[in-house]
Amino acid sequence: MTIQLNEENGGKVLVVHVSGKLVKVDYEQFVPEVERLVRRHGKLRMLFDMADFHGWEASAAWEDFKFGVEHFADIERLAMVGEKQWQHGMAMLCKPFTKAEVRYFDHADASEARKWLSET
After folding, report:
1. What is the pTM of this model?
2. Coil, strand, or helix at residue 71?
3. Could you tell me whether strands 101-106 and 75-82 are parallel, antiparallel, or unpaired per DSSP bridges?
4. Domain ranges, residue 92
């Protein structure tokens, strides 16, 4: 699994590129970075880019659930950019687990996702 984090808009937007299958150790990089940005900026906007993403191992799915509970109110907007029908469904399923406004965008519309994240 590859996870790549990039800050945009002065750190107010976190772009998370994931590919392959998420494993538990991936959260050891991801969670502290989110927490650092929340301490610095308050609520974040996040673009979750799922190019070539294949899901989670069971232990990583648990880490993802814990992250959602612990950071329920730390994300203001979440743009999920994907290329598969199940990824669209995943975006809809995560809505009850966050206070964030969640939208799904097809990969062809990634620029629209960035535009939406930067709107006030």
Report:
1. 0.86
2. coil
3. parallel
4. 2-118
